[in-house]
Amino acid sequence: MSSRKWVGRVVLYRRALQELQAAGRETVASAELAEAAACTPEIVRRDLMEIPCSGSPRRGYTVRELLAGIEVVLGASERMPVAMVGMGNLGRAVLGYIASRDCPLQLRAVFDRAPEAVGRDFGGLRCHHVDALPEVVRDLGIRLGILTVPGAEAQAVADRMVAAGITGILNFAPARLALPGNVTVENMDVLTSLQAVAWMSRLAAISRQG
Amino acid sequence: MSSRKWVGRVVLYRRALQELQAAGRETVASAELAEAAACTPEIVRRDLMEIPCSGSPRRGYTVRELLAGIEVVLGASERMPVAMVGMGNLGRAVLGYIASRDCPLQLRAVFDRAPEAVGRDFGGLRCHHVDALPEVVRDLGIRLGILTVPGAEAQAVADRMVAAGITGILNFAPARLALPGNVTVENMDVLTSLQAVAWMSRLAAISRQG
DNA sequence: GCCTGTGAAGCTATTCACAGCT
DNA sequence: AGCTGTGAATAGCTTCACAGGC
Q1: pTM of the model
Q2: C or N terminus of chain B, fewer CB within 10 Å?
Q3: Cβ of B127 near strand D (distance < 7 A)
Q4: Any CB–CB contact under 8 A between A29 and chain B?
Q5: Going from the N-terminus, what domains does chain B have, and what CATH number goes with each?
Q6: Residue A59: which nucleotide is closest by CA–C1'?
Q7: Do B190 and A102 touch (CB under 8 A)?
Q8: Nucleotides of chain C within 7 Å of a protein C-beta?
Q9: Is the CB of B46 under 7 A from strand D?
Q10: What is the pLDDT of residues B52-86, one digit of tens each?
């Protein structure tokens, strides 16, 4: 039951729990977490069966215990190192997200190809030329990469990432990468998602009136 | 069978077909489209059952016919108008995607709250103050919105979008929006996806060695 | 009374298998 | 021989229903 969907929801539970903890709350019911993750209480309870914790009837789950359990399972305490290639608008925007407090990953190296970007400082990291990717990634033992380069360059850069030892890629380019099966790819395809909302909302409108 | 997943794949077929057409190809097999969309030939063939087209054995599908069929079904020829709120790094990055040739949607209005952004030109559009959202969206008949504001402001801005008549939102803020059921929301949650790749790739590594 | 934990049913999406056409 | 089109089987996820504890 540790599927992609499961992780996505658990990350949302974690986020909600952090807010609850900051607000001083001690316990929480599955229904409340369900609201935060836009799912049902049953799903929440099933998801939490994979987490070392137990809720008590009438009171719900202990915020502190649940949060600790989630962080153990997700390995959130490890601050896994990440590399990013492509420091345009998008790269800099993503940089902002990763710097946010509740991100359990740590950006350790950034790369670009453009001479005006190389050597510059981004979020405290000096931008390397993308040719340095193999050494840097290997030296720092980085396994995770974020791809924020233009679509035409995505495949080539991804190949170099994989050659350097990266096994997980968050791909923002509007292209499906062809990579070995042992590499996990998550696509953040803005154009596809935008067309999907357009279609889904139109569909909803049609089925409502029809 | 016109689900969210279906649209996502059809958009990818469309993209692949455009490239094939540009390259002068006349026919294409389901296996080739499957590769482009990272799925199986069977899925492609089932997906295409919703499209007005027919493949012929031994030759496959006619690129031109299939492309035309997809554009009819997706309504890609309409150039549906879109509004965007939040013109920071992220907003400007997304602007670049939407301007790309194969995006069948048209950005018609952009908004921000910051005085230094309001009045500025972004991709040929003069940035409005977010307070003008109701009139502008209503006047232009916009139904689709892109939310690229910081997480803390996302819910408030989304509420205003919905009040102004928007029924589909592409949400980049790391927060689940609470909106009426008739509004379609697609979440592009960078932090969640990043943690998902981290987990999935770690899981793959464990199951490979274990 | 209220909330958790979970078997069982139901649903959706994908894969298998293969008939049919050119 | 090669590729489409599709019934049937399967797998995965979600919802239903309810027993059990505080």
Answers
A1: 0.96
A2: C
A3: no
A4: no
A5: 4-75 (1.10.10.10), 79-192 (3.40.50.720)
A6: C3
A7: no
A8: 1-7, 12-17, 20-22
A9: yes
A10: 999 999 999 999 999 999 999 998 767 899 999 99
